[in-house]
Amino acid sequence: MRYGHFDDAAREYVITTPHTPYPWINYLGSEQFFSLLSHQAGGYSFYRDAKMRRLTRYRYNNIPADAGGRYLYVNDGGDVWTPSWLPVKADLDHFEARHGLGYSTITGERNGLRVETLFFVPVGENAEVQKVTVTNTSDAPKTATLFSFVEFCLWNAQDDQTNYQRNLSIGEVEVEQDSPHGSAIYHKTEYRERRDHYAVFAVNTRADGFDTDRDTFVGQYNGLGEAAVPRAGKSADSVASGWYPIGSHSVEVSLAPGESRELVYVLGYLENPDDEKWADDAHQVVNKAPAHALLGRFATSEQVDAALDALKAHWTGLLSTYSVTSTDEKLDRMVNIWNQYQCMVTFNMSRSASFFETGIGRGMGFRDSNQDLLGFVHLIPERARERIIDIASTQFPDGSAYHQYQPLTKRGNNDIGSGFNDDPLWLIAGVAAYIKESGDWGILDEPVPFDNEAGTEVPLFEHLTRSFRFTVDNRGPHGLPLIGRADWNDCLNLNCFSTTPGESFQTTENQAGGAAESVFIAAQFVLYGAEYANLAERRGLADVASEARKYVDEVRAAVLEHGWDGQWFLRAYDYYGNPIGTDAKPEGKIWIEPQGFAVMAGIGVGSGPDDAEAPAIQALDSVNEMLGTPHGLVLQYPAYTTYQIELGEVSTYPPGYKENGGIFCHNNPWVIIAETVVGRGAQAFDYYKRITPAYREEISDTHKLEPYVYAQMIAGKEAVRAGEAKNSWLTGTAAWNFVAVSQYLLGVRPDYDGLVVDPQIGPEVPSYTVTRVARGATYEITVTNSGTPGARGTLTVDGAPVDGNVVPYAAAGSTVRVEVTV
């Protein structure tokens, strides 16, 4: 069943009941200030770093799951309710939540009073703005009191959840009932000490009352659903001192029948230079001038409406870079709206802050951010350039890398380990994608340090060389790359051998000196090693390019000789030199990663879709037969039913979940792309639809998570709850599936000298038009598609037939019309 519907014209998903199978969320903000917001107003806000600059508190693993957020309580003549349903859970006569691009609205109505709240982070601002519209829909006058609520986090989200002996004594606030633009509450915990930042929560009218102490507002032994102050109908004017600081304003609203009133609430983050911290240094009163300026920019509904219009225009501009018009509305809405939107969210968040990632344990991933870049580089190439420099600056001189870095400091850390041997090659992938999109060859000369250490700067191209050489210099007895801690699959830990409960599989190595090898990294090296050779050649380094291609050929040969199991590619060799992913074993016979990536790299491709002897065709046929399910392709099959100490974490999951036979959606696009490489577009499109959320909307009661964004994992065919998704939003699936659909199924991808136009989508989409902006020119590409297996398109560019499938880049400002017949 469905719990809402798409509104494609508004670019929104409309949720029509609060009782979705799981909280369905949206992200607000795309620069420095971010909010996570569920359809029930749950979630939290932070500035840049979800760990180090958390503004509001959120408790994961709570009951119910979505407890805590920014709430608005209504006391209507003693009847207390919340328009978001949670936390009071009073029945509503009407409920609707609309998640749009960077904004959401939540509307609840009860007993003739309708309350609609618009939430968004304006472009260029470090604040969440909420516009509340209260309407009397009854035929009699109404007077009600609104009580807002946010709970401040004491900045460091991890410390906030653990260090109670200190934190229950440091909470501080200031209250400004008569601010220049209404009433304001300031969260200034630790501001007297080493911090230069504070938060403000304000309403654009003089509040009738306030509360800043959580225990007073909620009441001892109460939950948020039975908060004492809203039930009393009057604020207590409490001032937090230590304990738990909150922000709450009460506003009485009197309305005639049909009348509405609008209020604006602002939750903002401010910083002051050290010499401007205080308005009154002697009494240490916070300098509120920046806050007053912020609140002045959103003092009226008209200002808020203008900021929302600017936000919508911002997204219209971004999404005009790539769009498709076809007869398949689900395809169009995913390509034109939701997939690209999710790519931007993963650009901002990496894997750090969602309803499944707390924002505490992980920063920005080296591997993750390079892959995410593939999905957003066409939207914001200038920010992709900055991201590449940030990532490369955390690399080590030997070419290896930190596995993650913190967004606030941009410095690498080893909290979840390092030595993942696929990491270095992803930098080549990201840089190549950026240059193809932008034509900015100068980035290769940009001086970039190692480990952010001043004085170690070398040109970025040297970093790529170190990435390439790291794989060349770290090969095992079969000529395949060593796996290190793990490769792309963090849970395939071939040097761990853990028997200690709680021991990290990613940071512990109990068997040093092993020669465990990865066929996946080998395929990755063939693909991106060739890309490195192309970059070298275009820099005039013919000898470097030639040598690089020699190494690529060696590894390609090693894959075919030592990485082939007869019907599919092996996954790896373990610590003892035994093959993993072989038909000779009863479990884990075939793994998805090398099948997709090896074919993407052109290994064993043969002469086309009918070449039954080609390893690529055999491997992909085996994938279809053994890994296929209605919900996507499982990671390996059969799943492991016992702990395999030599394999590590992968065998700790129950069969069918996560890396143990789950549908890990991130790697499904590799097989989708691989099917287009061999000319089987129909099969590729079928795989695409199995995991793409818009096509799964009708089974939302099974899928459970949002029907507008990809999930990291869907439970596999051996799981108890097959088809159930987990971990939505922050997944490399977003970028890779956009690459798969936009560049390979629809077949329009940037290259160094022009756009490659090579559609492979099968007969279900007989015609479509792609509009693609590249390097300032607009390309209107109309495709007439027979869907014949193996057929490739013939092109006409501005009325003239051309050989091949490359449309040269045109001058900025021009429009190029391309007609393609497949």
Automatic annotation (TrEMBL):
<dbReference type="GO" id="GO:0016757">
    <property type="term" value="F:glycosyltransferase activity"/>
</dbReference>
<dbReference type="InterPro" id="IPR008928">
    <property type="entry name" value="6-hairpin_glycosidase_sf"/>
</dbReference>
<keyword id="KW-0808">Transferase</keyword>
<dbReference type="GO" id="GO:0030246">
    <property type="term" value="F:carbohydrate binding"/>
</dbReference>
<feature type="domain" description="Glycosyl hydrolase 94 supersandwich">
    <location>
        <begin position="11"/>
        <end position="275"/>
    </location>
</feature>
<feature type="domain" description="Glycosyl hydrolase 94 catalytic">
    <location>
        <begin position="314"/>
        <end position="747"/>
    </location>
</feature>
<dbReference type="InterPro" id="IPR012341">
    <property type="entry name" value="6hp_glycosidase-like_sf"/>
</dbReference>
<dbReference type="InterPro" id="IPR037018">
    <property type="entry name" value="GH65_N"/>
</dbReference>
<keyword id="KW-0328">Glycosyltransferase</keyword>
<dbReference type="InterPro" id="IPR011013">
    <property type="entry name" value="Gal_mutarotase_sf_dom"/>
</dbReference>
<dbReference type="GO" id="GO:0005975">
    <property type="term" value="P:carbohydrate metabolic process"/>
</dbReference>
<dbReference type="InterPro" id="IPR033432">
    <property type="entry name" value="GH94_catalytic"/>
</dbReference>
<dbReference type="InterPro" id="IPR052047">
    <property type="entry name" value="GH94_Enzymes"/>
</dbReference>
<dbReference type="InterPro" id="IPR010383">
    <property type="entry name" value="Glyco_hydrolase_94_b-supersand"/>
</dbReference>
<dbReference type="Pfam" id="PF06165">
    <property type="entry name" value="GH94_b-supersand"/>
</dbReference>
<protein>
    <submittedName>
        <fullName>Glycosyl transferase</fullName>
    </submittedName>
</protein>
<dbReference type="InterPro" id="IPR037825">
    <property type="entry name" value="GH94N_CBP"/>
</dbReference>
<dbReference type="Pfam" id="PF17167">
    <property type="entry name" value="Glyco_hydro_94"/>
</dbReference>
